[in-house]
Amino acid sequence: AEPLLEIRDLVVEFAGDEGAVRAVDGVAYSVRPGEILGVVGESGSGKSVTAMSVLGLIRRPGRIVGGEIRLRGRDLLGLTHRQMREIRGNQVAMIFQDPMTALNPVMTVGAQIIEALRLHDRKMSRAAARERAVELLTSVGVPQPEVRVGQYPHEFSGGMRQRAMIAIAIANRPQLLIADEPTTALDVTVQAQVLDLLRDARDTTGAATVIITHDLGVVAELADSVVVMYAGRVVEQAAVSELFAAPRHPYTLGLLAGVPTSEDEDEDDDDLASIPGTPPDMAHPPAGCAFHPRCPIARDRCRTERPPLAQAAPGHRSACHYADELVGATARDLFATV
Ligand code: SF4
Ligand code: MG
């Protein structure tokens, strides 16, 4: 199918004291209708800034300085604020990590769903909207929806608030759903329920879904394909099964080393292997491959020459000069000795 969302060569900069900081540097990815794309990276990798760009929510000192974002072929970067607001209410919806920042604390949950519905369909009666709000709360598994519809966000638990936000997000059957760390603030059991809910939302609405996370476990659970970001760039992209079976970027291998496996005896073990070093200071990104200061197989060339995102296997791209050497490598091979 044709991509629903297509991002090409996106560049986003933030003005700072020492000049512009490039938070997103040439990002490209696309999502087809009904596909769930996981976008993975540490904080500061540019994954959220890319999503905010799609939503038209980049504000000063941030600025989109290059690239294209197309929704069903329509160029979103050329739209006015007003046109973009309309798209946000109808075709594209967002689910945030913290529902308290997204929900209005002084409006009942029901009133917020009704507002979303009537913004989309001005002819919908209040009664019909209320009925639909109850239906939506039911569909996201909120118990006693007839009572809950009249309650305020603070009367909901964290998990219930996340369900309410999903209800608002899917109220107008958006074509594209963007969820930024939707389960990070939740405990493990509720996390699994919310992921199920996002999968149901995709199944019932056919929406393309972008799920932004630092957690490869979430990607394994939910996504069809995955984009791995580092220092404002895409470093690897593949189908989820392919990425987990045959990763072709050292950073991805490092992330995989941090994912608990059935071999880890103690589930509470925080000492799982993780990538040594820290994410780069984006005001002074490393030359060449931005991952080189942390990469166990970096060579001289990596310090000067930036690797392009190139095909590593069919449908699989990696931005590493030595991607071919990683065939058959495991995270433990690569990171055990560092
Ligand atoms: Fe490591 Fe070099 Fe590949 Fe970058 S290009 S990930 S530094 S081997
Ligand atoms: Mg973020």
From TrEMBL:
InterPro entries: AAA+_ATPase, ABC_Ni/Peptide_Import, ABC_transporter-like_ATP-bd, ABC_transporter-like_CS, Oligopep_ABC_C, P-loop_NTPase. One of its GO terms (molecular function) is ATP binding. Residues 5-256 form the ABC transporter domain. Transmembrane segments: none annotated. Keywords: ATP-binding, Cell membrane, Membrane, Nucleotide-binding, Transport. The keyword Phosphoprotein does not apply. It is a peripheral membrane protein. Coiled coil: none annotated. It holds the Pfam family ABC_tran. It is found in: Cell membrane. NCBIfam families: oligo_HPY. Belongs to the ABC transporter superfamily. This is ABC transporter ATP-binding protein.
